[in-house]
Structures are given as C-alpha cells and as structure tokens.
Amino acid sequence: MGDSEDRVTAAVVEAIVERAPRVAAAVPVAAAAALGRWRPDRRVRPGIPDPEAIRALRELPGWLVERLHGALELTVRSLPPVVGAAVGLGDGVGGTFAFASLTTEAEALREARFFEARWPGAAEVIAGLVSRLVGDEAVAGLLGADAVGDEEAVAAAHGAAYLAVAVVTAAAVLGDAGCDKVAAQVGLGLGVASALLPSRSMPVVYKEAVLAKKRVEYRLPAFGSMQVAVREHVFALAEGSLPEPGEFADNGLVEVADGGVLVRTGRETGVLEVRMRVLAEPPVKIDTQGWHEVVEVSWPARLGDATFVGPKHYNHRRIATPPRPGDLRVRVFAYGRDDVETETYELVVWEAPPAPSVVHARADRLGHRLRGEPEPAVADLPEAAYRWIRQSALSEAATVTVVVGLTLREVLQAFGADIQEPEPIEDLLDCDLEFGPWVTVSEVDGFVLAVEENGVRGVQREVLTELSRRGRAASMFWNVNAVTRLSFARDGELLASAELGLPLGADPEVAAAVEGLDFDDWQDRYAKGLVAVERFTGRGLTVDDFDEIQEAGMGYPLADL
C-alpha cells in the first residue's frame, strides 16, 4: 500500500470513528436486526453481471432498503466528504450513455446502480476499502462485538454497526467524487454491508440470545417433517456436530452420542423425509403397527434445540427438540430399511428421566444383522409390485378399475364417455374446469384397464354394476386426504365396496382377494388394494401399462350420469 493510500485509509478510519456511532444510532432497531440476520440466496443467477454489492442490494427486501434509506437520509446528508477518498475510482464515464431502471425499483438501488454505471468498478472499490477497514483495530471496536440484550438487540447492534461503517465509507468516497446524492451513498453502503455481513461472525452472545428466544417461544406439542441428509448409512438428530457412529450392535437402529442421537439407515447416502413429534407428556401407548423396527433410548440434551441436518435448498418446516438442557426420551420408528425405495422414519421425543433402551419391534433383516441375530426369511410381499405408483402421476389421487367381459367401447360407455371425442391428456390436465372428470383406458389380453387421475367414476355403484354385467370388475380409489375405497362387482351385482380395512361382506371370492393383506398397516395400503383388484379380476395395472396409456396421450371426458 502506497503513502497516498495509507493517508486515505487513515482519513477514512478517522471519519468512521467519528461518524459511524451517529449513523448506527439512526438505524431503526427492527430494520437493523433484519439486516444483521440477513442471509441472502447465494444461488448463481446467470445473466446478471452486477458487482457483488449491487447484487446483494437487489436481493434485500424492498421494504428494508426503503426503511433504511429513509431513516439515514438526514444523518448521511450531513456527512462531509473525505478528501482523497475517491482516489481509487479512476476516471468516470464521460459523454452520453444509456441507463435503464424500473419504476418499482427502490431509489437507493437505482442511484447506486447509476453511480456504478458512471464510475464502473466503484462498488468493488468501496467494498475492498470496507473489507480492509473492518480489520483496523479502531474500526473493529465499533462492530458490535460487545453487544448485549435479547436476540433482536444483539442482531440489531451487529447489523447497524457494519451498515454504519459501510455507509460512512461510501459517503466519504462518493462525496469526494462530487456525488452528493444520499440515495447513492446509502444504497452502495447498504449493498456493501449486506454482501459482507454473512461472512462475519455474530457477537459471541448471539447464540445464547437465540436460544433464550426459542425457549420463550417454544410450545408443546410440536410436530413437523424435514428433508434429512443421509451419509454413510446414518442421519442425526443433533445439537451440533457428532462423533463417528459405532456399529449399532446394541439395538440395531439407534445410538446415543454426545449432543444427539444417530439413526442407522438402509440407504448409504441421499435424502429422506423424516417426521418428528415432540410431546408434552409420555405417549400413552406404544403402537408398532406398520413399522419394522421400533427402538426407544434416553438422551441427555446439553443445551437443547436439536434438529436434523438437511440440504439447504429444502424449505420444510424446521422441527427441533425443546431448547433447554435436560433428559429426553426418543422413540425411533423405522420402516423399509431392507428396501430403500420405501424407507420411512418417525421420531417421537418427550422429556423423561434416563431409562434403559428398549427394542419394541424387530422385524427387518438389517436390524437382525447389526444385532448379530439370525436374519428372518425374505418376505414375499405382493404389494411391492405396485410401489411404482408412488413415483407416478397417480401418487396423490386416482381410481384404477379393471374390467373382464366387456370391450373397450362398452367400458367407455359405462363410464359415460364418448369414444369419438378423446382429448389430449395435456389439455385435460390443464383444463379441469372445462372438461370435468375424465378417464384413460387400455385393452390388454381381454382385460380393459381404466385409469382416472384424481377421478372417482369407477367407484360408483351404477358404473361398477354395468361394467360387470358380463363378467367382473373391481376398482381401487385413493386421494390425498387418505380416503380410500375398494370395490368388487360380478355379473351385474355390486358385491362389496368399503374403505380399506373395513368389512367387505362374506363373498368367498372377495375374501380370497383380500386374504393376507394387512390394511391396518398403513404402509403400501393403496398398493395392497391394487393387489386385491388384480386377484379378483385376474389382471392388474403394471407400470408398462400406465406408460403406454401416457404415451398414447389421449383421454375421454365424462358426461354426467
């Protein structure tokens, strides 16, 4: 650094020490706290060549930019330039040039952009100067490291301090360059501060202040789900970083570590959605129905507020344990570790004195293997053939109907469709209000397969009796609210139609269709219903069938019956 730069730096430091406290005092607490907490979206946005400070200013909420500009306007207007501060700007653009802006753009952003267009590189010069200055001992003492108070007070002191340093620096540079526009000075200072703040540590008391705020606001019971990161067959519910996992030999599912619990998964890596419930009281009963492994352990929380580690780009509701130290009991439910396509977890947490670990259910092969026990035989689950539904367009709501004894034309007539009036599926999906209900069909080896995406015509009595008049028909309906209906008809008579798990009458063929299917187990319930449809009719809907229907690309609007 040359003598002239040393002199400029010393002059700007002197200006900051003198003026920054006054600027910081003018910043409203709520706006300062919002800036202090601000963490911008750092995803790459192609086509925006702005310098970092301008880009950071764009990313700030409009209300925050306007609020800070208005609050600082009178104070900044009174700041004199610092002679020589603009030495790094070089010569500005002369003559005539074009500049475009939006009428909705905040004035501070517009003027900052205009100054950058007039003096290209100005934002980077100011940002570089501020980055050097915050390391100066005299300036560092102004940066809010000694902040006290609650979370908002500490965040506000942090945000206001950095903003004041950046704005005083921007005013010094722009003032020396002959620009007295307060909007530009505040805008460039705010952009530089918001770009710099995410890389600067919060005051040491901030973590405890956040925890104190969470303790006041925390309510029980709490529940939610998060996308959880799995690494090396493990995910964690933790207060912080955790040690390497062990062998899970004690119970085959959960290990307690310093600061949290580790859960052993079937998949090696990836993302899982995990549900968690935090209860005010111990659960009344232990319900293992629908789960392969259920293990309960005690865990001493150091500080509390343990949560899952997950990918940053998922915005699911954060769920955490009580934000206070104490003994916790956690019950971990696991399903599908032997088949990672169905892998599911739920954790139930409550405050309780330490107690020995308990294995409430042990059914998967992985758990037996980890515990050193003989593995159970591989179960032949017929519903596994229909798990493709989960990843298809039918995952949320559909009715699948299989018909034996009628032609495709007769099936469409029974549904109330006109075989002469098909419509592209894309149009039917985009124009539900225009077309109403609709159906797609396929004729395969003497069977007719009818599929309604988010439709219910195939469960209606009059439709099923007509579909079965020369043979048999069966349908399975489900929707996003977990409402279901499994129906069977033969020779023009409706034999049974009910929610999954409810009685279906005494017909022996219906009984044979549902034999061995556990509808009380909520896992793969829709798939089990489709197994019953296949058993009763002799044919099911395969993924290849559905792909062919989708590739054909045509559906039939249904008239009112």
What does this structure look like?
This protein has 561 residues and is α+β, with helices and mostly antiparallel strands. Helices cover 35% and strands 20% of the residues. It contains 18 helices and 18 strands. The chain has helices at 3-25, 29-37, 52-59, 62-77, 107-118, 122-133, 137-140, 151-176, 182-196, 206-217, 365-371, 408-415, 425-430, 432-435, 461-467, 508-514, 525-537, 543-552; strands spanning 222-231, 234-238, 254-257, 260-264, 269-278, 293-301, 307-308, 326-335, 344-351, 358-362, 398-404, 423-424, 438-444, 447-453, 472-478, 484-490, 493-498, 554-557. An eight-stranded antiparallel sheet has the order 12-18-13-14-11-15-16-17, sandwiched between helices. A hairpin with a 5-residue loop joins strand 15 and strand 16 (484-490). Helix 6 (122-133) packs across helix 8 (151-176) and helix 6 (122-133) crosses helix 9. The longest helix has 26 residues, at 151-176. The radius of gyration is 33 Å and the shape is elongated. The model has no long low-confidence stretch (mean pLDDT 89).
